[in-house]
Amino acid sequence: MSTPKSLFDKVWDAHVVRKIEDGPDVFFIDRHFIHEVTSPVAFLGLETRGIDVLFPERTFATADHNTPTINQHLPVADPLSANQLKALETNTAKYGISHWGLGHAKNGIVHVVGPENGITQPGMTIVCGDSHTSTHGAFGAIAFGIGTSEVEMVLSSQCIMQPKPKKMRVTINGKLGAAVMPKDVTLYIISQLSAAGATGYFVEYAGDVFRNMSMEGRMTVCNMSIEMGARGGMIAPDETTFAYLKGRELAPKGEAWDKAVAYWKTLPTEEGATFDIEYNFDAADIEPQITYGTNPGLGTGISQNIPLANQVKDGEASYKKSLGYMGFAENEQIVGKSIDYVFLGSCTNGRIEDFRAFASIVKGRKKADNVTAWLVPGSHIVESQIKEEGILDILNEAGFELRQPGCSACLAMNDDKIPAGKYAVSTSNRNFEGRQGPGARTLLASPLVAAAAAVTGKVTDPRELI
Description:
By secondary structure, the chain is α/β, with parallel strands linked by helices. The chain folds into three domains: 7-162, Aconitase, domain 3 (2-Layer Sandwich); 166-240 and 265-285, Aconitase, Domain 2 (3-Layer(aba) Sandwich); 289-464, Aconitase, domain 3 (2-Layer Sandwich), CATH 3.30.499. Helices cover 31% and strands 16% of the residues. It has helices spanning 7-13, 40-49, 79-95, 110-116, 148-157, 182-193, 208-211, 215-223, 239-245, 254-264, 316-326, 346-349, 352-362, 380-388, 391-397, 447-456; strands at 16-19, 25-28, 31-34, 59-62, 98-100, 125-128, 142-145, 159-162, 166-173, 201-206, 232-234, 277-282, 289-291, 299-301, 341-344, 372-375, 423-426, 441-444. A five-stranded parallel sheet has the order 5-4-3-6-7, sandwiched between helices. The chain has a four-stranded parallel sheet with strand order 11-10-9-12. It is globular, with a radius of gyration of 21 Å. The model has no long low-confidence stretch (mean pLDDT 96).
């Protein structure tokens, strides 16, 4: 009798080209996403060594990190950004790689455009020179970020050398309460495990809460797996997955679709499969979340006070430094804190469901005068949906403006930088010192919490507004 296998084991084992004794596995990669920041040096390495791209049809390029989110029809002003964007265009043309640059109808954030065009599929291995590649694990794929030298390795050989990570399963059963979004679920998990609590593991998310999530919600959860140190996160494919993928441009069609679905149905973890570590949580314990520190693990339910130093997993000195940077104090109430900026977007929360949620709060209300709001769709497809569904009208009537697709204020590699000392309620994934601009203070939250802050000018429990 064979040993029951997990989803992770099934996908990993199917892609091992060669096992190296006491070393990493030579691991085949099905899909490789590239963007303008981490690819130029990799392509330079190919040129220097006189090597071609082995399977250009398995690589997909989009411009997102350095792109402006206004006036994208104009030349990019920043010389470094302009050079990187031009290099991506030149390199993809040279090697015959699909390229969705600025102005292309399919352009957008790499981890948004991959799924929405059907490139991301269950059972695949997916890499990108970006840590939030874990997003694609929502489809039952093994997806993780790689470094520049590894980008070159995948371009030249379609393989990578990787030690097999340990396995963790996080199970949440029960029903989520009012105004609790997938972002709240993942922030809750990270607050319980800490920002390093899953280091060295690949995480499978299981239980009622994840089974009942939309694909967009699952992507949000898997996206932030990296924020607790995990190599990546996965959710077993099911009918929700298949319904999302069916009919998308690069998804299988006809008989190939039927064959693919038959295979995908074999992937979920088998009864009795073991994990190196397991955690179980109750959905009823999760309320809307918000962070108060300088790593994603420093977060709490929005109705709670900022914890005392002896209540958190970070060391006391580190914790007090974090609060000092944020201008907060132990046992202080978060609700009611005045804020300056709201950012809706990123590969975590830049999809249509996020804009629907945001609009549900701001409809019939007005943007607070003290708030600057950057609302940035994850792709042109999302931008079109916002307009077609009448969400843009709701946003405009409330005093908001919609920007153009891109990573925007998530990482401050473009013009969208939060000024020093200012507070931003952000739907992105990282609240490190300076992440959204030198000296910027970031409070990570869901689209509903962001919307509540945007119309009140302060940290507000969205349950008071729905």
